[in-house]
């Protein structure tokens, strides 16, 4: 049961927009910060000093025609390895950061049909909290257990409003590109079929603030076909401090022959990182042509040498 529950909970939370325009919503219930006196809020964005306690309020809204009961908890957020989307730790998992610091005033609430309930949230920041960004979510988990599609297991659904907590202290952004791997896949005969090479790389936030990275790909060396540079599109919108994400992107128009290096460059907030991978790709038709040309050159050179030796022998005779 726990495996199914956690899997679906993470899926629902990763579907939230990186900079949501409204409440975290799955169509049946939503969780959002209570509006301030100045402007509506899409997420909890709180500055803090180590050793302080913060209080805030959240609104859980039930848009269905029946009352719903939710378990509430504060969870740590992280980037998923699969695609870099944001997810949270499950309710039964050990919380180590924001999830360990935060607590709703009630662990469970019942919200009548088409109604909303406001609940308080407390965040106690440890004295030894590291400076920079700490990200989590206030999660409302439906207590109903529903059947999973194509499975005998039951699942519970959860929706979370994000918590962005910035602890005072030096901000040190950092970004690295690690373990770049270029795999060239192209037809053995040039200009026939499709070319679907892949580029895999790891984005690593080495600093203490969240980043909105951008990444591009460059090719250097002697290559045939393909552009020299392109923008990578599957980069996560938010990369949290300390997180690593392994990304793979298909490159249909990659060079089909040559040798050189592929360089992935990432940048965000005036920081930059890059990683490279060398490659050698020679389709068999080109390789055969080169071999034939080399053989022809060698035979021609050998024949010329024989002719020159024969002429020298005849002259001496």
Radius of gyration: 29 Å
Number of strands: 20
Contiguous low-pLDDT stretches (5 residues minimum) are 1-22
Question: What is the subunit arrangement here?
Answer: single chain
**SS element count, helices:** 3
**Straight-line N-to-C gap:** 99 Å
Major sheet: size, sense and barrel closure?
A: 6 strands, mixed
Please report which band the strand proportion falls in: under 5%, 5-15%, 15-25%, 25-35%, 35-45% or over 45%: 35-45%
3D shape: elongated
Structural class: alpha+beta
| Mean pLDDT rating | 82
Helix percentage: 10-25%
**SSE series:** HEEEEEEHEEEEEEEEEEEEEEH
Structure description:
This protein is of the alpha+beta class and 317 residues long. It contains three helices and 20 strands. The chain has helices at 2-14, 98-101, 284-316, and strands at residues 24-25, 29-33, 44-48, 53-62, 68-79, 86-88, 102-104, 108-111, 115-124, 132-142, 146-147, 154-155, 158-167, 175-183, 197-205, 214-224, 229-231, 244-251, 257-268, 271-281. The strands form five sheets. Strands 3, 5, 6, 8, 10 and 13 form a six-stranded mixed beta sheet that branches. A five-stranded antiparallel beta sheet has the order 1-2-4-9-7. A four-stranded antiparallel beta sheet has the order 17-16-19-20, with no helix packed on it. A hairpin with a 6-residue loop joins β11 and β12 (154-155). It is elongated and about 110 Å long.
């Amino acid at each position: 049961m726990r495996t199914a529950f956690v899997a679906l909970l993470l899926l629902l939370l990763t579907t939230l927009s990186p900079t949501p325009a409204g409440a975290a919503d799955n169509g049946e219930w939503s969780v959002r910060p209570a509006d301030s006196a100045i402007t509506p809020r899409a997420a909890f964005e709180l500055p803090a000093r180590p050793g302080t306690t913060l209080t805030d309020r959240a609104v859980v809204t039930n848009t269905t025609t029946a009352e719903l009961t939710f378990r509430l908890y504060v969870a740590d957020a992280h980037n998923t390895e699969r695609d870099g989307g944001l997810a949270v730790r499950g309710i039964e998992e050990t919380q180590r950061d924001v999830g360990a610091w935060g607590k709703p005033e009630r662990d469970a609430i019942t919200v009548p049909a088409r109604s909303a309930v406001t609940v308080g949230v407390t965040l106690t920041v440890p004295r030894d909290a590291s400076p920079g960004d700490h990200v989590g979510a206030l999660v409302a988990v439906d207590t109903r257990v529903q059947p999973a599609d194509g499975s005998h297991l039951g699942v519970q659904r959860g929706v979370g409003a994000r918590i962005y907590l910035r602890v005072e202290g030096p901000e040190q952004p950092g970004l690295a590109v690690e373990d770049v791997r270029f795999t060239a896949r192209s037809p053995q005969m040039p200009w026939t079929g499709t070319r679907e090479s892949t580029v895999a790389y790891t984005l690593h936030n080495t600093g203490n603030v969240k980043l909105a990275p951008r990444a591009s790909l460059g090719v250097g060396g002697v290559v045939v076909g393909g552009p020299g540079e392109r923008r990578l599109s599957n980069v996560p919108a938010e990369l949290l401090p300390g997180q690593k994400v392994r990304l793979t992107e298909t490159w249909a128009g990659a060079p089909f022959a040559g040798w050189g290096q592929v360089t992935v460059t990432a940048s965000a907030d005036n920081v930059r990182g890059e990683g490279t991978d060398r490659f050698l790709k020679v389709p068999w038709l080109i390789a055969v042509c080169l071999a034939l040309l080399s053989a022809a050159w060698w035979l021609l050179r050998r024949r010329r040498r024989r002719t020159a030796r024969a002429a020298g022998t005849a002259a001496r005779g």
